[in-house]
Amino acid sequence: MQQILLGIDRLSTLVGQIFSWCILLLTGVIVYDVCARRFFAAPTTWGYDVAYMLYGTLFMMAGAYALSRNGHVRGDFLYRNFSPALQAKFDVTLYILFFFPAIFAFMISGWHFFADSMAQNERSMFSPNGPIIWPFKFLIPLVGFLLLLQGLVETVRCVQAIRTGEWPQRLSDVEELDKQILAAAEAKGAEALAAEMARGGEAAVLGAVQSAQGPASQDPTPRHPHS
User: 25-67, pLDDT tens digit by residue?
Assistant: First the structure.
């Protein structure tokens, strides 16, 4: 089960990282359009359309990635003091009551929005030679599907936290631990660390990581993915 959850985390991360390059394209388009208008009195007819499509694509395609990293805004001045089990109960309630109904409505209405646009071969009305925009609108149901997948993953994690009293690992935690193990291997030597891990198992891994970090870097406050 954990491998499936981390696999969907990886999918959300991959999509988010790929489409993050839209910010560079968006910056280039805006700079070109401003320079052409300001210095050469030759504004583009396509700059606005391309800019809002790139911004919309960047914003939407990062949604599942942000959810997988627990990066959405949360009013957590009380939430952070709850136990993991109580946090999970709040989360799963909100997912069931608000998240999933909203996502299903988003996907269904977004699909009809896209289908109507494609049937009309809709073009942008903001420029004289308006580009077709129905491929851009296809992102709406696609993003809804990705958010639905990641929401199911987060719901499963909530159920696990309610049962065990601890938040399960997410991909960001696994990646952080991998980096710490590599740092410990560099500090202690790969063979010595491997032998220590073989003798002591997971506890030895955590001990090696802490010893490699040093006492000054150890945080006595316990953390979990939703802190």
Answer: 999 999 999 999 999 988 888 899 999 999 999 999 999 999 9
71: phi then psi, degrees, rounded to nearest 5: -100, 0
Neighbours of 167 (CB within 10 A): 21
Reported as type and span, the H/E element at residue 8 is helix 2-19
Q: Tokens in use for 78?
A: 């009380």
Q: Please say whether the beta carbons of 122 and 133 come within 8 A.
A: yes
**Which residues, 6+ apart, have CB-to-CB distance to 6 below 8 Å?**
169, 170, 171, 174
Identify whether the C-beta of residue 124 lies closer than 8 Å to the C-beta of residue 131: yes
Amino acid at 203: A
Query: With contact defined as beta carbons under 8 Å apart, do 55 and 26 qualify?
Result: yes
Here the tokens at position 167 are: 């938040």
Integer Cα distance of 227 and 218 in angstroms: 17
What's the whole-number mean pLDDT along residues 110-126?
Answer: 94
Within 13 Å, how many C-alpha atoms sit on residue 99's CB side?
Answer: 21
* pLDDT tens per residue across span 206-226: 555 555 555 444 444 334 544
Query: Dihedral through CA 120, CA 125, CA 131, CA 132, nearest 10?
Result: -20
Query: Could you give the angle at the alpha carbon of 162 between the alpha carbons of 159 and 168, nearest 5°?
Result: 70
Q: Are 147 and 103 in contact (CB under 8 A)?
A: yes
